[in-house]
Amino acid sequence: MAENYIPLSIDNNWVYRYTYYTESESIEIDDSVYVEEETQVITSIDSIAGHEAYRMDNWEGGNVPNHSEWYTENDSGLFVLAFTNPPDSSQPSVQFKVGNQLFSSLRQIHQSLIKSSLRDTSIFEPPRKLLQYPLLADSSWIWFTDPWHAVRTWVGSEEVGTIIGPFNCEKIQIDYYFEEDVNFYEWWSEGVGLIKRSISIYEIILIDENGNVIGSMNAHFDWELTASNTTSTIAETQQIKSLEVHPVYPNPFNPSTTISYALHEPSKIRITIYDIAGRPVRQFGDFYFSAGFHQTIWDGSDDAGVQIGSGVFIAHVQAGKYSRAIRLICLK
Q1: 10 three-state secondary structure
Q2: Tell me: the pLDDT tens digits for 54-113?
Q3: Hey, which CATH number is domain 236-330, 2.60.40.4070, 3.60.20.10, 1.10.287.180, 2.60.120.280?
C-alpha cells in the first residue's frame, strides 16, 4: 500500500485537545474558551457491510466510550464505513440554524459537519472516502451529499507544530455548499494519523423557542494531537534510536509518579509537564545525562511548589533535538 495515514492496528491510540469558543456582536453570549480531551483507541476488527473494518472507540471523559467509528483502507484511499454519535441530552431554549438544518447544540453542529448525520448509528454503503490516494495537487473528491454536499480537496504539504513536536502533514480543505461561511481544514501525517482539525462557522442563525430569529453567532472548533503511541515526528527514525520514553508508573497517580526514559547517547534532558490546555505546569532540566536508563520523579507539584488537582497532563521529554510525549492522569 502506497500510503497509510491511520495506522490501523489494535490498541493504537490518539489523544486530542479539543478547544471551542463562540462569539457574537448581535446578542450577549458566554464567549469563554472551553477545553476538553478526546481519546481514541482502536479496539477490534469487525465486519461492516461486507468490509473488514477497524473499530475506533472515542472517550470524552468518563470510563466508557461514548461513540465509535469504523475505518478501512486500501490502495485508493482511507474510508469511513460507519459510526455512532455521542449522546446529546441538551434541552436548549435556543436552536442553531446552519444551512437548512436546525440543531439543538454546538456539539450537534460539529458532529454533523464531520459525520453528515445525527442518527444514533449510520452505516455508509458505499464507504465514504476520507482521504484519496495518491494525494495529488488540487485533487478533489466528494465526501458526502446528504444532508449537505461536501467536497474534500488536497491543498498542499506543510509542517505543523504541536505540543509533542512538529509533523510533516498533508492539508485537506473541506467545502460545504450552503450560505454560511465555513472554514474547515484537516492536517494528516502519514503513518501517524490526524494531527490537527480546525473548523470555523460564521453567521449561525439563533432561533428562540417561539421560532423567532434573535441574532447570530460565530463558532470555532480546534483539535490538536497531544499524545499517541503512533507518534512519528519529523525526526522519527533518529528519535526512536536516540530517545525511548517508557510508560509512567503509577498512572493514574496520587500524589507522585515516575517518568522513565532511555538514552542511546549522552544528551541534555528537559522534561516539561503541561496541563490539558497546553499550559506549562512543571519543568525539570536542563540536565546532562549519560547514555542509559534514567528516571525522574514528579511529586505532583507545580513550579511554585503547589500541589496540582485531579486532571490530565502531558509529559514532554526532550533529549537534544529529539522528543517524546506521554499522557499522565492525576486522580485525587
Answers
A1: coil
A2: 999 887 765 666 788 999 988 888 999 998 876 666 666 788 888 777 888 777 787 777
A3: 2.60.40.4070
